[in-house]
Amino acid sequence: MRHRMVSDLMTTSVVRVRRDANFKEIAKLLAEYDITAVPVVDDDDRPVGVVSEADLLRKEAAQLDPAGLLPALHPRPADRAKAGATTAAELMSSPAVTARPEWTVVEAARVMEQGRVKRLPVVDEAGRLVGVISRADLLRVFLRGDRAIREEIGRDVLVRTLGIAPGAVTAHVVDGRVSLIGTVERKSLIAVALRLCRGVDGVVDVSDGLGFRVDDTSGPTTDTTSRRRSQLAP
Predict the structure, then answer these.
(1) Which residues touch 184 (CB under 8 Å, ≥6 apart)?
(2) What residue ranges do the domains of the chain occupy?
(3) CATH number of 6-141
């Protein structure tokens, strides 16, 4: 199986700024390119931070209400510093949380979740900026068609990886939801098949309709010659 990599999904035409970029310059770039954040790079094009809309809005939120109706805010020291910032170096969140082109979608998603960020600058082996990947980019894997998912499961998971005879197990796919129907030789293959199918890009869920011929999970191997669900029947 070939999982989609960050390099397959990232944006390579990256808008970036230097540390000395001013507030209005950054705001203009966000509006002009319809983006929500911009990497800040050093002289070697290595990301040192990211300035987001949220960073810019802290300055706006810290202003006094012209109508005098809203109470004054009492921000934390870090937020007070951002509110008075005028350059990218002062506004940015640092250090930059980055990704690598060879990462899988899962790796990038986990780093985003752990770092509580919506996008990751992508860097090469030298740490230079080569792209940006966002949450929206990662979600594109779920736009894969059902036919492509079904063919990958049938060809790469069931036949090539698990060695299941063609036609012994059928994958039905509707809106990314996979149903496996058929009979495998050994019971232990069922859990493996379900796990591998869940790892196929674009799969939303996998349901188990598999039976087995031999139970190799509970002591001495037993030839059941029956479907698993028949054992569960009263």
Answers:
(1) 162, 164, 168, 169, 190, 193, 210, 211, 212, 213
(2) 6-141, 144-232
(3) 3.10.580.10
